[in-house]
Q: What sequence folds into this?
């Protein structure tokens, strides 16, 4: 991060710190939401709310937003899930709270508060207004779209923190009681089912839904149905180990729908251009202007070991100091930053491989490759879902297509190559780690071994969506990742091997009498109602595979 921008980030963090003494009501209020009068004045009271909700699924900004959204994304998602997933390492740590921060598993209160705000609060107000507007105007398709967008954002809250406000979210009060994880998933499935039914009818009749304000699909109802079904499939597989019956029910419903799930590259849900706006990719700025985001050691081990043709698509060769790098199969030199180090910004880490991401690179919510891997996992454990082998191959092939790779998929799948060790030879900044596993890409072995292969390839295809990758790593245990270099969060429950299982709730949740009562009731919902501690080691309902 340039010095000027370091101050900008610190200013954001300090501003958030002013809310450290705020009550539970304030964290459930979007301070930046347009007023009713502003929406009406500009002529997009409803349409503008749709666009606003879309910008909350994964925070994205335009040039006019300067670095505000980029900084919000950085502290809410990048310095947590993007790193915890094994995708990234940072050319900084010591500069943030003297090395005790999310990257070293010490959860900073203002940063986790930002995650809650970005994933939940910022979508709450526009969703409530869209609900009222759709009922008033008799436009159920608008509310259907709002429901899909709500779930797209809120399942990140659910999977980051655990119990959350859902069933009473539309209530007038801000002191909203929390629901159990199981109840929220069941409600999300029901809400998705209803929303998809409404949009299916519009799709069958060729109706465009809010096209002028839809930055994702330009009002294409068929695409929205495919996305809704694909999101349902994602959430169904999420709960597979916790409730197989519930998972199978909604996975079946999603893939057997008349319109179905994503199958092609252009089905992708993404934010780049639309609704009259051009959005910027956050990670490009973090890597280029802040000189922070770099290749993580885990993804280095897998891409280098597999001689994966996506290596040069995902990352750039080293920029100077190449003597510290490793020559890859493409003849270029790459190097990763060790995860969870406690060093300040330096030229050695600065020279490591940047993500090959430009300002105009889309920010992806969900792509067809992920859907193929979800179907592969379903077919692996349940009858009636086709061939796991076929879906696995199609998943790799689709990921190749999505990334412009023309190498033969069969050659990649039949290789005996496996992940390699991470070696960074430097007296101060280096680290040596053995290969995380010996697993090849060949689809063979036991059911568990095949699951590992599916999850490895799904993880590679998900890059750079660290939030989803972190969640799936917790759910399945795959792929096996390198441990962080420095552990600072043991007091909060974190361990080197177990990592971060969930974010703890922001302290402001319990700073008023009403908020404290809601907070304490939420803790009783963990472990299927048996209760649990507000620690980063507390496993969520679906994180039950051992």
A:
């Amino acid at each position: 991060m340039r010095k000027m921008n370091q101050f900008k980030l610190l200013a954001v963090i300090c501003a958030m710190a002013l809310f450290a003494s705020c009550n539970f009501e304030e964290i459930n209020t979007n301070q930046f939401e347009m007023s009713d009068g502003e929406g009406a004045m500009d002529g997009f009271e409803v349409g503008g709310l749709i666009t606003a909700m879309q910008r909350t699924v994964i925070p994205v900004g335009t040039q006019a937003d300067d670095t505000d959204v980029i900084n919000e994304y950085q502290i809410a998602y990048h310095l947590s899930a993007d790193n915890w997933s094994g995708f990234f390492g940072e050319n900084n740590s010591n500069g943030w709270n003297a090395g005790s921060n999310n990257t070293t598993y010490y959860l900073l209160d203002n940063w986790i508060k930002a995650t809650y705000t970005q994933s939940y609060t910022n979508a709450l107000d526009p969703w409530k207004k869209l609900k009222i507007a759709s009922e008033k105007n008799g436009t159920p398709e608008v509310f259907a779209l709002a429901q899909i967008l709500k779930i797209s954002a809120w399942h990140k809250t659910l999977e980051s923190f655990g119990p959350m406000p859902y069933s009473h979210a539309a209530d007038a009060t801000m002191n909203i009681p929390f629901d159990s994880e199981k109840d929220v998933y069941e409600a999300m499935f029901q809400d998705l089912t209803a929303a998809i039914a409404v949009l299916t009818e519009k799709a069958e009749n060729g109706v465009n839904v809010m096209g002028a304000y839809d930055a994702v699909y330009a009002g294409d109802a068929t695409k929205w149905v495919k996305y809704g079904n694909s999101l349902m499939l994602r959430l169904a597989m999420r709960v597979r180990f916790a409730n197989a019956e519930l998972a199978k029910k909604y996975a079946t419903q999603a893939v057997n729908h008349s319109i179905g799930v994503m199958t092609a590259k252009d089905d992708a849900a993404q934010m780049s251009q639309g609704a009259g706006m051009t959005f910027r990719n956050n990670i490009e700025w973090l890597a280029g202007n802040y000189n922070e985001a770099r290749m993580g050691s885990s993804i280095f081990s897998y891409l280098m070991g597999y001689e994966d043709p996506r290596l040069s698509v995902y990352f750039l060769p080293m920029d100077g100091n190449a003597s510290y790098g490793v020559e890859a199969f493409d003849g270029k030199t790459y190097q990763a930053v060790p995860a969870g180090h406690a060093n300040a910004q330096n030229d050695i880490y600065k020279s490591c491989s940047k993500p090959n991401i430009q300002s105009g690179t889309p920010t992806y919510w969900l792509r067809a490759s992920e859907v193929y891997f979800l179907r592969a996992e379903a077919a692996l454990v349940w009858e009636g879902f086709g061939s796991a082998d076929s879906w696995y191959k199609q998943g790799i092939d689709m990921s190749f297509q999505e990334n412009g790779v023309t190498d033969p998929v069969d050659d990649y799948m039949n290789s005996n190559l496996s992940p390699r060790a991470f070696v960074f030879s430097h007296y101060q900044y280096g680290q040596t780690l053995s290969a995380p596993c010996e697993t090849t890409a060949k689809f063979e072995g036991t059911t568990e071994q095949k699951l590992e292969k599916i999850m490895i390839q799904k993880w590679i295809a998900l890059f750079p969506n660290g939030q989803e990758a972190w969640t799936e790593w917790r759910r399945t245990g795959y792929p096996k990742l390198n441990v962080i270099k420095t552990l600072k969060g043991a007091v909060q429950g974190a361990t080197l091997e177990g990592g971060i299982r969930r974010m703890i709730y922001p302290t402001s949740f319990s700073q008023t009498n009403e908020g404290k009562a809601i907070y304490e009731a939420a803790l009783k919902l963990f472990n299927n109602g048996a209760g649990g501690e507000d620690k980063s080691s507390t496993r969520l309902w679906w994180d039950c595979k051992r």
The two ends are 39 Å apart (CA to CA). The longest helix spans residues 109-137. The first strand starts at residue 88 and ends at 90. Residues 1-22, 29-43 have pLDDT under 50 and may be disordered.
